[in-house]
Amino acid sequence: MTQKPNPLSSIKISGPIPAHLARAVIEETLRNAILDGRLPCGTAMRQQELASLFGVSRMPVREALRQLEAQSLLHVVTHKGAVVAPLIEDNSAETYELRMLLESEALRLSTPFLTDADIAEADAYINALEQEKDYAEIGRLNRLFHMVLYGKAPNQRLLKLVEHGLNEEERFLRFNLEAMGLGETSQEDHRELLRLVAQKKIEESILTLRNHLMRGMEVITTYLNGLEAAATKDAQ
């Protein structure tokens, strides 16, 4: 019987890791591996195995796993420990409703402090999105665009919650965007949102953002329902 390869074997460590950098290096390395799919959903993150892989004690591994759990990239499962979280939860509609509340408030707080340089950076991300064909990169650019608009919000806890939601969406888009066909509509929304933000039209910006997220929720929900229906039909 052929043994399945261990997903952790895809992670290559070059040389010893300085003790004071261990937690950050482990967190960033695992985060990248989760986002690019090398560590698939459900992969167990065992502390001792990771400590051996990185050549460190279990303490920085434990701290890194806590950070990744806080970013919604890991879930703690009874009797199994930390595992890579699903690409998107079954309650995707509720998740998007929460995102609307959080991102609307982040946009409201951030917009008055955005500079011309911030607007130019967001515009550059839109231009890059219009040219990009790689779906992994599209997910990353989408996250960066939104975070530029929210980034001047003074509430750091709010920004962390917002970024967690965008991390989840980035992972989902990375593996499903081609099948959903969101490209052109998303950029039209982004350009309108940026135009309103640049003019400091806060309420209009929030309405446009909410409509953008609502369309995203509808497309993803329809897509997931289609997958579920197909799976049910195959099982019959």
From TrEMBL:
Classify the source by domain of life.
Answer: Bacteria
Which keywords fit this entry according to its UniProt record? DNA-binding, Transcription, Transcription regulation
Q: Which Pfam families match?
A: FCD, GntR
Q: In Gene Ontology terms, what is one molecular function of this protein?
A: DNA-binding transcription factor activity
Gene3D superfamilies, sorted: GntR ligand-binding domain-like, Winged helix-like DNA-binding domain superfamily/Winged helix DNA-binding domain
Report the CDD domains cross-referenced here: WHTH_GntR (cd07377)
HTH gntR-type domain spans which residues?
Answer: 20-87
The record's listing under SMART domains reads: FCD (SM00895), HTH_GNTR (SM00345)
Q: What protein does this entry describe?
A: DNA-binding transcriptional regulator, GntR family
Instruction: Identify the gene encoding this protein.
Output: mcbR_1
